[in-house]
């Protein structure tokens, strides 16, 4: 894979930064350098660079913010990926794009790649539109659905818990939403394997299922469980957003990944 010309879009984000370590020779573009909501700019950049692989790690991931900024969410998460797919199709490039567990409504205990999405919040709806726009615009894509990402180079649940733990006697965390925490380093390291597989949708997470409370309990000592009703949010969250990976080898357990994360952050 080293000889293949790769473009990473969203290279300055939490996942993008770890992708840059896996693909050190890639052309790297941050959101300041490429506005993926600008179709003409996307087509011009990608056709000029002529990569063989485009990895799109750009996204609007603030779930609450998406409720307030619906149009922006659909531009960045929905139409933008479609423009990238269109450009990839024109030059024959493979597109790798990251989607989310929130494309599902959470009414089932777990979801495989072929299950029908039914998002219950704007973030999930915008990400689903991105999946659809990609499939409409190119045949050579790898859509990777991920969940509960945490990584050194961005705001994430682990850092939020550590901060709140130092400020509060007790930290309340919901115990009735379940998913799979995923370390961005492990995810980034898996992308070369995904590129060897056929076009389609993939679920890729660390192994092991937990609630947000159980995840928090692995990080801090002063956490107490609560229900979603006790902690109302603007955006509805799926109760179960457990992604089952049926197409690739499973990654290590999230608890092992969390240990690696803590070791890295404490260096």
The helix tally amounts to 10
What name is given to the CATH topology of the domain at 6-151 and 180-206 and 242-247? Rossmann fold
List the strand order in the largest sheet. Answer: 2-1-3-4-5-10
Radius of gyration: 18 Å
- In terms of quaternary structure, the protein is single chain
CATH class of the domain at 6-151 and 180-206 and 242-247: Alpha Beta
Intertermini distance: 30 Å
Which percent band covers the strand fraction?
A: 15-25%
Chain-averaged pLDDT: 96
Structural class: alpha/beta
What's the story with the biggest beta sheet? 6 strands, parallel
Shape: globular
Number of DSSP strand runs: 12
Keyword list:
alpha/beta; Rossmann fold; two-stranded parallel sheet; globular
Your description of this structure?
The protein has helices at residues 14-22, 39-49, 63-68, 70-91, 122-137, 157-167, 184-189, 191-195, 212-217, 254-265, and strands at 6-9, 27-29, 53-56, 94-100, 141-146, 149-150, 171-174, 178-179, 182-183, 200-203, 210-211, 223-226. By secondary structure, it is an alpha/beta fold. It has a domain at 6-151 and 180-206 and 242-247: 3-Layer(aba) Sandwich (Rossmann fold). Helix 1 links the parallel strand 1 and strand 2. The longest helix has 22 residues, at 70-91. The chain is globular.
Quick structural gist:
This protein is an alpha/beta fold. The protein has 10 helices and 12 strands.
């Amino acid at each position: 894979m080293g000889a293949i010309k790769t473009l990473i879009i969203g290279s300055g984000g939490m996942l993008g930064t770890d992708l840059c370590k896996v693909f050190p020779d890639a052309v790297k573009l941050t959101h300041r350098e490429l506005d993926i909501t600008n179709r003409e700019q996307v087509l011009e950049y990608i056709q000029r660079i002529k990569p063989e692989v485009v990895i799109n790690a750009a996204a609007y991931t603030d779930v609450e913010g998406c409720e307030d900024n619906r149009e922006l969410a659909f531009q960045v998460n929905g139409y933008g990926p479609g423009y990238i797919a269109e450009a990839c199709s024109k030059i024959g490039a493979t597109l790798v794009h990251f989607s989310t567990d929130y494309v599902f409504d959470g009414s089932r205990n777990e979801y495989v790649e072929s299950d029908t999405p039914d998002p219950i919040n704007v973030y999930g709806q915008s990400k689903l539109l991105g999946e659809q726009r990609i499939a409409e615009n190119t045949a050579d894509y790898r859509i990777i659905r991920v969940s509960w990402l945490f990584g050194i180079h961005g705001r994430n649940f682990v850092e939020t818990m550590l901060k709140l733990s130092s400020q509060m006697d007790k930290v309340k965390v919901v115990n009735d939403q379940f998913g799979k925490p995923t370390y961005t380093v492990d995810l980034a390291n898996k992308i070369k394997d995904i590129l060897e597989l056929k076009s389609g949708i993939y679920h890729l997470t660390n192994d092991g299922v937990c609630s947000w409370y159980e995840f928090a309990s692995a990080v801090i000592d002063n956490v107490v469980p609560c229900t979603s009703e006790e902690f109302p949010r603007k955006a509805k969250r799926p109760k179960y957003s457990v992604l089952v990976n049926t197409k690739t080898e499973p990654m290590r357990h999230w608890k092992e990944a969390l240990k690696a994360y803590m070791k890295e952050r404490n260096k």
